[in-house]
Structure formats: C-alpha cells, structure tokens
Design goal:
The chain is an alpha/beta fold and 182 residues long. It contains five helices and eleven strands, in the order H-E-E-E-E-H-E-E-H-E-E-H-E-H-E-E.
Length: 182
C-alpha cells in the first residue's frame, strides 16, 4: 500500500471525502483537497524512507510548505521513529507523524469493531446518567492502532460499536489518554 493510499484511507476513516490530489515533484509532496461536513480542507503529505529518523528539520520544512499553500493539516509518512522535539513541533504545527504504522487497514478485520469520535452531546448523556466525569470512563491509549487510525487525541472520547450475535449491537465509550497516563 502506497503512502498516498494510506493517507486517503486515513481521511476516509475520519469522515473526509477526497476531491483532488496534486503531486508536486519540485517539493516532493502531495496536496490533497478533501471535504467534510461541507467544508474543504487542504492537506500536505510528505513521505520518507522507512529507515529515516523524522527530526525537527523535516517537520519545519513541511510546516513551511503548509503555510505557503494554505494547508491546515500535514502528514509526515514513513520513518522508523521520530525525535521528541520533532513530535512536539509537529503537534504545535498541526502535523501528524505516521511513523512505523501498519500497512493494512485494521478495520478491515472482522474482529476489530468500529471506532469513531463521540460527539459531546452524545456522551454527556451517559456521563450525566451515571454521574461520572469523562476521566472515569474506561481508558484507551492514544497509541492504540485503532485510535491512531481515526486521528483522536488525548482527552477525547471515542465510541466503539460492536456487533454480537448474542448481545446485538453494543456501544462502549472510552476516554483517550496519553501514553504516559497510569
């Protein structure tokens, strides 16, 4: 699966409909225009060799291209790992690092239930009903492959929808925590 196919898959999982893809040879990047809820978003994607370490220079370079092209989100795909400073700058610059990610879509497997970002009005009813805070929900780490695939960040709540022959449709809410949470 090419990095372009990975990104298109990620965008579809996140509810975007890809409208246009432009490959820019001179800057070695792709510009993707996609629509979600009637609003167009421009993404810039750069791919790197699987053996490369993603450092601050690569992240800053992508941010410059994003600013120049008016993109609101960027993806750096590839590399074997990223430096802590690169991850910090990427987060501040609205760049997602997709380092060492599986080549297949995990949601294609029959044992992986549907995951989606829960809307606040939806989970607030649950929190109110059980008189709990969102931190009291069962936790799921931001590094979980399903969480990474749908682009959730720490502090969000996800909804997991599982179909069962015996129980029917089951909905579970999970609070997304950083990997350092205990």
């Amino acid at each position: 699966m090419s990095s372009e196919e990975k990104i298109i898959g990620f965008l579809k999982l996140r509810g975007y409909e890809v409208k246009e893809i432009e490959e820019k040879k001179e800057g070695n990047y792709r510009l993707i225009k996609a629509i979600k809820n009637g609003e167009e978003t421009i993404f810039i994607i750069r791919s790197y060799d699987a053996q490369k370490v993603i450092g601050t220079a690569l992240v800053r370079g992508l941010k410059e291209i994003m600013d120049e092209k008016g993109a609101s989100k960027g993806f750096l795909v590839g590399g074997k790992r990223s430096t802590p400073k690169a991850r910090e700058i990427a987060t501040d610059s609205n760049i997602e690092l997709i380092v060492d990610y599986p080549i297949l879509n995990i949601f294609d497997h029959y044992l992986v239930p549907k995951h989606e970002i829960a809307e606040p009005q939806e989970y607030s009813k649950i929190l109110e009903k059980y008189n709990i805070k969102k931190e009291d929900l069962p936790w799921i780490r931001v590094s979980d492959p399903a969480v990474k695939a749908i682009g959730v960040k720490a502090g969000d709540i996800i909804k997991i929808i599982r179909d069962s022959k015996t129980a029917g449709k089951t909905i579970i809410y999970r609070y997304v925590v950083d990997d350092s949470a205990q």
